[in-house]
Amino acid sequence: MFATTLTIMVLLTNDEFLTELTKLFQKARVSGSVTMTMKRYDGRTKPHPRDGTPAVPNPKYKCLIRAQSSSKKISTVIDQEDVEKFSTAYTNLLKTSVNGLKRLKKPKKKAIAAQ
């Protein structure tokens, strides 16, 4: 009766993630969009215990980055040591891929003051 499409999140290495993200941006240039999310990640796959047992002292936090297009989801986990290298590569990717944005027209100050 109902046709459901199941999209599975794929965890990639940092370099593979940037390569796949480039492909997502190229597909979205024709039609569609890409949604990016970033969040702190401590490596846990289970929720914190309720019984008051202490959490891991001084966890090494990582960064979880996800990208989603209409039919594809990808993600990667970045270690603390690799943040600078990844952010440089990510910034260069954004500069080359996100160039079709339109500038917003700012209203002139005189027009605003006249109202």
UniProtKB/TrEMBL annotation:
Its main location: cytoplasm. GO terms for molecular function: 7S RNA binding; endoplasmic reticulum signal peptide binding. Residues 39-51 have a biased composition (Basic and acidic residues). One of its GO terms (cellular component) is signal recognition particle, endoplasmic reticulum targeting. Keywords: Cytoplasm, Ribonucleoprotein, RNA-binding, Signal recognition particle. Pfam families: SRP14. It is found in: Cytoplasm. GO terms for biological process: SRP-dependent cotranslational protein targeting to membrane. It comes from the Eukaryota. Residues 38-59 are annotated as: Disordered. Heterodimer with SRP9; binds RNA as heterodimer. Component of a signal recognition particle (SRP) complex that consists of a 7SL RNA molecule of 300 nucleotides and six protein subunits: SRP72, SRP68, SRP54, SRP19, SRP14 and SRP9. Belongs to the SRP14 family. Component of the signal recognition particle (SRP) complex, a ribonucleoprotein complex that mediates the cotranslational targeting of secretory and membrane proteins to the endoplasmic reticulum (ER). SRP9 together with SRP14 and the Alu portion of the SRP RNA, constitutes the elongation arrest domain of SRP. The complex of SRP9 and SRP14 is required for SRP RNA binding. This is Signal recognition particle 14 kDa protein.
